[in-house]
Amino acid sequence: MTDSPLQFELHTTDGRARRGKVTVPHGSFNTPAFMPVGTRATVKGLMPRDLRETGSEICLSNTYHLNISPGPKIVKKMGGLHHFMGWDAPILTDSGGYQVFSLPKAKLDEEGVTFKFEQKGGKKITLTPEKSMQIQEDLGADIIMAFDVCVPHPCEYQDAREAVYRTIRWLERCKEAHSRKDQALFGIIQGSTYADLRALSTQLTREIDLPGYAIGGLSVGEGHELMMSSIDQTEPGMIKEKPRYLMGVGYPEDIVEAVARGIDMFDCVIPSRYARSGVAFTRRGRFRVTNARYRSDKFPLDTNCNCYCCRNFSRAYLNHLINTNEILGSALMTLHNVTFYQDMMRAIRMAIEEGSFEKFRQAFLDEYLSDDKKEELGFDDLDGRYDQEDFGWDVKHSVVPPTDIAENLEKTEPVDEVAGPRRRIEKIKNLGDD
Amino acid sequence: MTDSPLQFELHTTDGRARRGKVTVPHGSFNTPAFMPVGTRATVKGLMPRDLRETGSEICLSNTYHLNISPGPKIVKKMGGLHHFMGWDAPILTDSGGYQVFSLPKAKLDEEGVTFKFEQKGGKKITLTPEKSMQIQEDLGADIIMAFDVCVPHPCEYQDAREAVYRTIRWLERCKEAHSRKDQALFGIIQGSTYADLRALSTQLTREIDLPGYAIGGLSVGEGHELMMSSIDQTEPGMIKEKPRYLMGVGYPEDIVEAVARGIDMFDCVIPSRYARSGVAFTRRGRFRVTNARYRSDKFPLDTNCNCYCCRNFSRAYLNHLINTNEILGSALMTLHNVTFYQDMMRAIRMAIEEGSFEKFRQAFLDEYLSDDKKEELGFDDLDGRYDQEDFGWDVKHSVVPPTDIAENLEKTEPVDEVAGPRRRIEKIKNLGDD
């Protein structure tokens, strides 16, 4: 153990995939890890105890939004972000850079970014590396992010190159400005989708000694293929002994594929944002529960999910709640979707431990992706590549198709050997019809 | 035990106040009881397990709204309202009468009420006693309400008199149409604020044998005084051996005063609706947590409340959540407010059991009401009327004033002898200031 605010244990690898554990002042989390996003010091709709129940071991909060409300001084006065939001496990805050760069009238120079707060009566603010560090110190997260230059996609080579160098200069300023010894500062690698700039940025960033490093500037509309090739250009140059965080990613297929390329940490708003619009993630892909076909569907979102939502409520109930804008609909759907993501991460970790990650990956994608999506992503021959008996993700257990269930109720036979789900399915099938 | 779907045990009385227990097919609830309102098969923002945690033993749902979405046939197909909404304890549904009478273009005749559903593409619907019974049978609540004629306030004598008679004719049709043996049908007494009509309606209604009776047509803008005098004109004529339900009431002071007049059951949207706009109920009255003075207030909504919200979150956090329209703000505030109501009901029941209800009533109102409100309701000399040592409601425990706490933090000393709250107060006071 060192004085470092972050320890990373790399337990095992399976191909390029890594299984490890990160320890920070507020506890540990297993990697590969998914961090749900609690923008304004709350994962929308979930009480901290609900969030814990999803299997989440760390969550993320946003510097830009917390700077608007309630303001870092208030969070500090309230005993810091953990105490304020009632989440006593690890927290990561972003630097605010991603948000301010996406503002339409943000003005960038070497000092920082100047923009107007929409909410604060149009108050003009300059966010700099030093200012971002100050805010993040007041918030008090375990892991904080450097203030970097995010370029859009697509981006001219010259602009991307300038951003790489400025990001490095700003990283040095961040490191200099950061004084709290109980927070781990991560550097961010940029370079857009240019292979040589990615390699350059990786090299320059790793030369600055930090407890962890992130890949930034992806998940900005470049698509799955470019995202993966950018990871391929970046990750191999990163330090093996430190955690690697792919920022803002993503869909389940993105996460599985990035784990296969050596990534340890992920965050994304997708499970919670999709939840609020009624989109459920399941082992057989995602579906929109607000669709009319689910109006009287007695089955849970995912029969093999053990979350509170799936144990207690039907698609019909969620269809009703989301369609009538009931708060509970957002809360229950979020609880399920985040649980789905965490179940997936647990299965990923188990597969890596067992040395069967490659098979898991094929089987997961085969079950999860639609045929169209398989073709689009180049996974058209997944079937022959794995043996169902061979890994932890319960493909056989998804006895309930996500669609057509109401119509095909009598045709669906449980093939599951686990007593719990089977009993539940029997009970559901015996509900009174009219 | 009889074949009746409802048994009422009257355990003890204290003055006119009554302490009892109602048993229906899905369980028992203690009276006096407060029923939180779950309009569309959800108490907004609360998972059923959260609702249970508030101490709620029964909840209410609305026929009119459930008839719009998801529709009674779907609820029936889903195994009934209990299974649909995941609430396995008693449920009461209203008849839809109150809602349809408040629609601007509702047309009333002897058959029923004809109106247009706003949501269902303006579809024209006639709601009749028979139709209301059919819908409520499909929904499957333990207690269902007769379809009655609700008159507005103020109301001409002649109109109120006609409504009394029509309500009786409709009650007979409801009883005739109602066939499920596992649901208890309650009759509703009308009569507006006319003493002789209240007496008449009470007499006519009790002549029809039913498991319980309700006082309707109040809480429609008549004010506290007229509400209480109307109860005084109604309740004494009601059958002693059956539960008495005062519909749609109300504020804590209304409930305490109605309990003193012999009422057993209450429902109201106030705790949950006020919660969503940031108004908290506490032992020292209610306050608006969105007020700027609470922006950095470290104390919970009510220091002596043991709900999940008060155990974990500050007024500052709730101020932030409600001001930024975060769903969690509504959920946490609702959890607290409903808990406050249920704690009050528990204290009421204990006081009746101990024969100290009159002292509880004075002490509660003295602590809860503002001076203005005391004067308005005629409670200006409460101080001399009770001894603080003498009853169950912990007046001494409210060590934290609901206002000015941030400014007076150092001046507030805990006088509470209970270890839990004292430790919590010490911990809060030791939070870092800037």
From TrEMBL, chains A, B:
One GO BP on record is: tRNA queuosine(34) biosynthetic process
**Residues binding Zn(2+):** C305, C307, C310, H336
Known EC number? 2.4.2.29
RNA binding: annotated segments: 248-254
Q: Which cofactor does it need?
A: Zn(2+)
Which pathway is this protein assigned to?
tRNA modification; tRNA-queuosine biosynthesis
Q: Which reaction does it catalyse?
A: 7-aminomethyl-7-carbaguanine + guanosine(34) in tRNA = 7-aminomethyl-7-carbaguanosine(34) in tRNA + guanine
Query: Any transmembrane segments, and where?
Result: none
Question: Which key words tag this protein in UniProt?
Answer: Glycosyltransferase, Metal-binding, Queuosine biosynthesis, Transferase, tRNA processing, Zinc
Q: Which residues form a coiled coil?
A: none
Q: How is the cofactor bound?
A: Binds 1 zinc ion per subunit.
Q: Which ranges carry the tRNA-guanine(15) transglycosylase-like domain?
A: 16-368
Leading EC class: transferase
**Active-site residues per Swiss-Prot or TrEMBL entry:** D94 (proton acceptor), D267 (nucleophile)
Q: How does it assemble?
A: Homodimer. Within each dimer, one monomer is responsible for RNA recognition and catalysis, while the other monomer binds to the replacement base PreQ1.
* Family, as annotated: Belongs to the queuine tRNA-ribosyltransferase family.
Under PANTHER family, the record lists:
QUEUINE TRNA-RIBOSYLTRANSFERASE (PTHR46499)
Q: What does this protein do?
A: Catalyzes the base-exchange of a guanine (G) residue with the queuine precursor 7-aminomethyl-7-deazaguanine (PreQ1) at position 34 (anticodon wobble position) in tRNAs with GU(N) anticodons (tRNA-Asp, -Asn, -His and -Tyr). Catalysis occurs through a double-displacement mechanism. The nucleophile active site attacks the C1' of nucleotide 34 to detach the guanine base from the RNA, forming a covalent enzyme-RNA intermediate. The proton acceptor active site deprotonates the incoming PreQ1, allowing a nucleophilic attack on the C1' of the ribose to form the product.
Q: What is this protein called?
A: Queuine tRNA-ribosyltransferase
